[in-house]
């Protein structure tokens, strides 16, 4: 175990810390067992480290002042004491700010580059609309009851399309932070003829911003993914010009 060498560096300090603490626990449990390594490893290792041990690990991490990033709305709703907040009023979804998203200054038309994504279907014209983050059941239920505001560009991370399926045909466009053009959401938007970018890397977009999807760009194909061809469409944020 001590000679184990990961093939790649840990993705983050948190991953490295969890790996280190897990190894520390395994060493202690092995020493307590007084059994040969092979016997401990193949007969008892899966029982030696319990859920209580992982709770203790979590408490050690939190004791350092670290708070976890959240991967779904339910995380921060259920355990706000250990997850970082969503952002001001929950309206600005910082989890969509991808560190690799290209950004630029506004051009003469006030369009500032705010990211890229994989275009599902090529169209004659780009789509312009209003960015609205959709990650919670509450927002979907509100839109089911009151209707989706006209011109909504839905920004979501549910590449399966399950969350937004009941209201998807009301979107003017979709920007999805995950998946591929072959994901369920990509298929749904193709069937409904809704402009859509999958696997999007965006940053600097807030709730209510006017955005433009470059769905006039070449659509990404299965062969592009297989051959590693980097074919992307752009996303712009409209910056209001001073009078």
List the helices and strands and how they pair.
Blueprint (H helix, E strand, L loop, with lengths): L12 H21 L3 H7 L1 H4 L2 H13 L9 H6 L32 E9 L7 E7 L3 H10 L5 E5 L16 E4 L7 H8 L4 E7 L7 E4 L8 H6 L5 E6 L5
Short description:
With 243 residues, the protein is an alpha/beta fold. It contains eight helices and seven strands; from the N terminus they run H-H-H-H-H-E-E-H-E-E-H-E-E-H-E.
Notes on the structure:
- This protein has 243 residues and is α/β, with parallel strands linked by helices.
- The protein is built from eight helices and seven strands.
- The protein has a seven-stranded mixed β-barrel with strand order 1-5-4-3-2-6-7.
- β2 (127-133), α6 and β3 form a beta-alpha-beta unit.
- The longest helix has 21 residues, at 13-33.
- The protein is elongated, with a radius of gyration of 23 Å.
- The protein starts with 12 loop residues before the first helix and ends in a 5-residue tail after the last strand.
Features:
single chain, 243 residues, alpha/beta, seven-stranded mixed barrel, 8 helices, 31% helix, elongated
Q: How much helicity do the residues have?
A: 25-40%
Quote the average pLDDT: 85
* Uncertain stretches: 88-92
3D shape: elongated
Decide which structural class fits the backbone: alpha/beta
User: Which band does the percent of strand residues land in?
Assistant: 15-25%
The helix-strand sequence is: HHHHHEEHEEHEEHE
Radius of gyration: 23 Å
| H/I helix tally | 8
Number of strands: 7
First-residue to last-residue Cα separation: 65 Å
């Amino acid at each position: 175990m001590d000679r184990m060498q990961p093939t790649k560096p840990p993705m983050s300090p948190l991953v490295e810390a969890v790996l280190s603490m897990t190894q520390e626990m395994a060493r202690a449990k092995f020493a307590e067992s007084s059994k040969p390594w092979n016997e401990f490893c193949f007969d008892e290792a899966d029982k030696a480290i319990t859920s209580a041990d992982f709770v203790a690990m979590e408490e050690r991490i939190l004791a350092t002042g670290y708070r976890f990033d959240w991967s779904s709305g339910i995380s921060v709703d259920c355990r706000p004491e250990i997850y970082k907040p969503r952002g001001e009023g929950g309206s600005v979804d910082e989890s969509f700010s991808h560190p690799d998203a290209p950004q630029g200054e506004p051009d003469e038309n006030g369009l500032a580059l705010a990211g890229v994504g994989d275009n599902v279907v090529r169209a004659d014209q780009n789509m312009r609309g209003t960015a609205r983050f959709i990650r919670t059941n509450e927002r979907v239920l509100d839109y089911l009851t009151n209707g989706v505001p006209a011109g909504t560009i839905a920004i979501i991370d549910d590449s399966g399309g399950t969350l937004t399926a009941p209201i998807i045909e009301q979107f003017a466009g979709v920007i999805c932070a995950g998946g591929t053009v072959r994901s369920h959401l990509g298929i749904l938007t193709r069937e409904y003829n809704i402009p859509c970018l999958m696997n999007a890397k965006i940053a600097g977009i807030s709730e209510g911003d006017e955005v433009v999807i470059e769905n006039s760009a070449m659509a990404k194909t299965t062969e592009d993914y297989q051959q590693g061809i980097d074919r992307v469409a752009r996303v712009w944020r409209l910056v209001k010009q001073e009078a």
